[in-house]
Design goal:
GTP1_OBG_dom, alpha/beta, single chain, six-stranded mixed sheet, binds guanosine-5'-triphosphate, GTP-binding protein OBGM, mitochondrial
Length: about 550
């Protein structure tokens, strides 16, 4: 309605527009009225016109644990009070979530940080858990580890659906609490997370202890004593002293434990030896390839874990009391009520784990269309499926793999990936390089698309049999044995004049694979091609293109 009003002779909208823009920009014809106005090009180019980001390096850091609280609950009748500082909350994890709604890594940040846990509070209240950083990655993401812990797979079902005593199944998709986490292996199978090591004391010694509440009366440690001498009284609020005391407290504890076990020296030797071995390993292989894969939507992978929260003085006091030798046969309750030793400090939260990762996308499709630029791969994908890839009469129109669904009358369906054009020397980074070939590493069937008309009428193109030889060589350069899978040849542009003769010559020069003459533009020969692809898919035919079976001048 509004545009009719604008064009109505009595409408003053047209008049206003005339005033706003110079006369040469405003015409009375309805077709050019709006199109002549200067239009600003949007920032976001269509997906097809953007280059794909299928490899990215990310740095993930789990959230720091919240500090434990040091607090005493004092009352009118209780001058000294009882400890009531709660533990700090656990830091958040960095999680990669597999999603079918994401195509590549272009929306991924390089630094992924999860949130810190909340600090513990008085009245024995635990700090809140830091929120996780969940980022979505496309289906087919492969994770390589440069630095850090091996990521672990998290299962993703609401625990409400489980029986209270049921342990979430490893193969299922149950959201397991963290102690049920499993490690994922290169093959995607799960392993029990048996050697997940708790963060050690050294992890938090270097961190400044930020304690909220009043410090306990410190024992006569060397620093505390010197402070006492200077001020004439035991310092009650010195953070540094608390930290020193906390350090000594834990060092003593760990020494005692080691002495008890009588293996202190052996442990040191073992550690040195292990360290040496680890260094050697690091030197040998810096990147651990394919430590995990995300192949199904909603799969989740923890790449960096949040640090544990620090302990409040309630927890530490209980711990120290339970650890005391119980000679008098007193009960646990009596031991807890006994508040002779109320000087247990609180501890600061552990830092979260860090990981440096390389994410790589390997699209998953049943059939991969491989061909030189301008061979007609995108046109063919559009003819076979409902995909709408960009088609252009110039080379390298396709900048990212396009995936389409090939449907059959009996509801069978398969996915087809159109890979950007390859040229001779792609392995030396000519053209778009051969990085896109990683997308066909997972395809089950290969369809080589050749342009029958490329070398016709003294055009400068390459003859179809030479195109095939170059394609096979490029696949092999990318990965040995990549061409070793069921294959067929699509002889495209059969509608061009003289293409029939080239097709006949192609058949005589290339042996061992079925060749389908097709006109992708007119969708001729496409049904036969679909039948051929299905035969290769279900295994009723198995033929591959061998370099020895291609006759080139
Ligand atoms: N005559 C004829 N032209 C075709 C046929 N199929 C495709 N074309 C034309 O060939 C040109 C290239 O087609 P695309 O589908 O973009 O080729 P591509 O292999 O995807 O090219 P890249 O994106 O460079 O890899 C376009 O101008 C198409 O119209 C066909 O069967 N017959």
């Amino acid at each position: 309605m509004w545009f009719r009003r604008a064009l109505h002779p009595h409408s003053n909208l047209l008049e206003k527009t005339r005033c706003k823009y110079p006369p040469w920009m405003v015409t009375s014809s309805s077709s050019s009225f709006y199109s002549d106005l200067p239009t600003k090009k949007g920032k976001a180019a269509p997906l097809q016109e953007r280059r794909m980001r299928d490899r990215v390096r990310i740095w993930a850091k789990g959230g720091e644990g919240g500090n434990g609280c040091w607090s005493y609950r004092r009352g009118r009748n209780d001058r000294y009070g009882k400890p009531d500082g709660g533990n700090g909350g656990r830091g958040g994890d960095v999680i990669l979530e597999c999603s079918a709604a994401v195509w590549d890594f272009s929306s991924l940040q390089h630094h992924l940080n999860a949130k810190k846990g909340g600090h513990g509070v008085s009245k024995n209240m635990i700090g809140s858990r830091g929120s996780d950083k969940v980022v979505q990655v496309p289906v087919g993401t492969v994770v390589h580890l440069v630095n850090g812990d091996v990521p672990s797979l998290v299962q993703n079902i609401s625990t409400k659906s489980l029986h209270p005593w049921e342990i979430p199944d490893a193969d299922g998709v149950a959201e397991a609490p963290h102690h049920y986490d499993n490690r994922v292996t290169a093959s995607g199978s799960l392993e029990e997370d048996s050697d997940y090591s708790a963060p050690c004391f050294n992890d938090f010694v270097g961190k400044s202890a930020r304690l909220h509440h009043k410090a306990p009366k410190l024992p006569a440690s060397s620093e505390a004593e010197s402070e006492t001498c200077r001020n004439g009284h035991i310092p009650r609020y010195g953070t540094d002293n608390r930290r020193v005391y906390a350090k000594e407290y834990y060092e003593d504890k760990y020494e005692m434990e080691a002495e008890e076990e009588g293996e202190g020296e052996e442990n040191e030797e073992d550690e040195e030896w292990e360290e040496g071995e680890e260094e050697e390993e690091e030197e040998e292989e810096e990147i651990q390839y394919s430590v995990a894969e995300l192949t199904k939507p909603r799969q989740r992978l923890i790449v960096a874990r949040g640090g544990e929260g620090g302990q409040g003085n309630v927890a530490l006091r209980k711990e120290s009391k339970y650890n005391k030798p119980n000679n008098g046969g007193s009960t646990d309750r009596e031991m807890l009520d006994d508040d002779d030793d109320d000087s247990a400090p609180s501890t600061s939260g552990m830092p979260g784990s860090e990981a440096l990762l390389i994410l790589e996308l390997k699209s998953i499709a049943d059939v991969g269309l491989v061909g030189m630029p301008n061979a007609g791969k995108s046109t063919l994908l559009g003819a076979m499926s409902k995909a709408k890839p960009t088609v252009g009469h110039y080379a390298f129109t396709t900048l990212r793999p396009n995936i389409g669904n090939l449907n059959y009358d009996d509801y069978f369906s398969m996915t087809v990936a159109d890979i950007p054009g390859l040229i001779k020397g792609a392995h030396e980074n000519r053209g778009l390089g051969h990085a896109f070939l990683r997308h066909i590493e997972r395809t089950r069937v290969l369809a080589y698309v050749v342009d029958l008309a490329a070398a016709l009428d003294h055009r400068k193109g390459i003859a179809p049999w030479e195109q095939l030889r170059d394609l096979v060589l490029e696949l092999e350069y990318h990965q040995e044995g990549l061409s070793d899978r069921p294959s067929l040849v699509v002889a495209n542009k059969i509608d061009e004049e003289g293409a029939e003769g080239v097709y006949e010559e192609l058949k005589s020069r290339v042996q061992g694979v079925p060749i389908y003459p097709v006109c992708a533009v007119l969708e001729e020969g496409v049904p036969e091609l679909k039948v051929g692809l299905r035969r290769l898919m279900d295994g009723s035919e198995w033929q591959k293109l061998d370099i020895d079976n291609i006759m080139v001048d």
